[in-house]
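Lab notebook, bench 4. The sequencing result for the construct came back, and we need a structural model before the next group meeting so we can plan mutations. Quick request posted to the team channel:

Model the 3D structure of this chain.
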Amino acid sequence: MLKLAYKTIVFLGFLLVSSICLYADSPKITYENSCTSCHSPDGKPTKKSSVDFASLIWQRSKSNLELFNYLKTEPEHFKLFEFKEENIEKIVRRKIRNFAIEKEIILAKNVTAEQIFGRNCSRCHSATGEPIFPFAKKLSEKDWQDSVSDDYIFEIIENGKGKMPSYIGKLTENEIWAIVKFTRGMRK
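Done. Here's the predicted structure in token form:
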């Protein structure tokens, strides 16, 4: 009986220490310990930094790779992360990007796929899928629609191809899928 109680206490101690270590290594704690000397806890601008992490405009103007490379190559930032790239990656993916998630959810509820397409794609493709420029793809074309997968269309929107720009950091994953679905509706 005493042996079982001892094992239980050791196990509970292990769980407590493990959870403290995991919590201490969380992006939230890393952000609070490393970033709040210049940035506010809620991502809003301060006297030391004009960056507004909570702004959708700011969020969409930077890709994860751009943020990562900036924080890695800017000495003041890199030393705050103990010169560890994995700390920077955690902050970018799991903290900085989360400042605008609530706004993205609200935006997604109020914006239609047609509006997203119109805002981002209509410079080169008409609302019916007809190309505006000779280099643009005819999105309504039956043969093209039949020859490509949804994943392929998503990848082209996300990464760009030829003269089409990349939309990484400019559109959310949900917005890109909305455009894919909208594009599929253009098929003639």
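Confidence is low (pLDDT under 50) at residues 10-24.
Will bring this to the meeting.
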